[in-house]
Amino acid sequence: MLVSPQHRLVLHTATFLVWALAASCAGYWILQVTSNPGPAERAVADAVGTPTGVPSEAGALARLLGATAPQATTVASNSSRFSLKGVVSGALGNEAALIVIDDKPARAFRVGSVVEDGLILQSARARQVTLSATSGGPAVMTLDMPPLVK
């Protein structure tokens, strides 16, 4: 079979591009494996018990397969999860509060009711409520209403 010079040029160019792509991929992965230990490799080394300075095959394999280091999760403090929107006072002991939890719609809670697991609305005053772990226990947190805008 006879191949024209134009087809041969296209064939040579395509072959060159495929080999160039393969070489660059191989170079990338070689650099990934042989570079300084990353967070994932350190995490695997800690889990396996390998000293951090010693490159571990498990860490290199984990990074090669796309593992990332476990991220430290930031747990919002309870006081930032709760927001006091209003206080309703009636007869002594019939106070209630409008509390927003985790940016959900405000809900009304009476004094003595459970706001969330482990938190009870202990008292409600004019612009402030107190939450505690038990109905007669010490205050865990105090929520204040935002200042009035004039």
**Sequence stretches where pLDDT stays below 50 over 5 or more residues:** 72-76
Please give the CATH class of the largest domain: Mainly Beta
How large is the radius of gyration? 32 Å
Strands of the widest sheet, in order across it, are 4-5-6-7
**Helix coverage percent of residues?**
25-40%
Distance between the termini: 91 Å
Largest sheet: 4 strands, antiparallel
Strand content: 15-25%
CATH-derived architecture of the largest domain? Roll
Task: Describe this protein's structure.
With 150 residues, the protein is of the alpha+beta class. It has 2 domains: 5-64, no CATH class; 78-144, SH3 type barrels (Roll). Helices cover 35% and strands 25% of the residues. The chain contains 4 helices and 7 strands. It has a 4-stranded antiparallel beta sheet, with no helix packed on it. It has a 3-stranded antiparallel beta sheet with strand order 1-2-3. Helix 1 (5-34) packs across helix 3 (57-64) and helix 2 crosses helix 3. The longest helix is centred in the first third of the chain and has 30 residues, at 5-34. The relative contact order is 0.09.
List the helices and strands and how they pair.
Elements: H1 5-34, H2 39-48, H3 57-64, H4 78-81, E1 82-88, E2 96-101, E3 107-110, E4 114-116, E5 119-124, E6 128-132, E7 139-144
Antiparallel strand pairs: 1-2, 2-3, 4-5, 5-6, 6-7
Helix pairs in contact: 1-3, 2-3
Which key features would you list for this structure?
150 residues; alpha+beta; SH3 type barrels; 2 domains; four-stranded antiparallel sheet
Précis, in short:
With 150 residues, the protein is α+β, with helices and mostly antiparallel strands. Helix content is 35%, strand content 25%. The protein has helices spanning 5-34, 39-48, 57-64, 78-81; strands spanning 82-88, 96-101, 107-110, 114-116, 119-124, 128-132, 139-144.
